[in-house]
Amino acid sequence: HDWGVVAERGFVELGLQARVDRRLGQIEDVLGEVLESAAGRLDFAFVDAEHQGPPTLRYFEQMLPHLSERAVVVFDDIAFNRHMYSAWRTIKRHPGVGIGVNIGRMGLVTLASRNH
What we know:
The protein has helices at residues 3-13, 27-38, 53-63, 82-92; strands at residues 42-47, 67-75, 97-103, 106-111. It has 116 residues and is α+β, with helices and mostly antiparallel strands. Strands 1-2-4-3 form a four-stranded mixed sheet, with helices on one face. It starts with a helix and ends in a 5-residue tail after the last strand.
């Protein structure tokens, strides 16, 4: 499957194509550019990357300052291996995270309030 085409088709069917900035590529090649263009307005991120613990933690730390106060970040395949699950547990306990929830094979986090 060309997952980019599948995703694009889904965005069109949901009427979201004007609100979604979909980028395909190696995450280390595109993440910095995406975050800079978001300028603190990133409301949602779906992280489905290389399924390794240390890089997943780095991506989260890199995203954190660019997320809006209402942001939701979803990590796919949190139990893919023990390294991913360890990274997920670390992310859930991060002081910048308000709520971390396991949703089947995915993990979802919201941010802690920055006003306190």
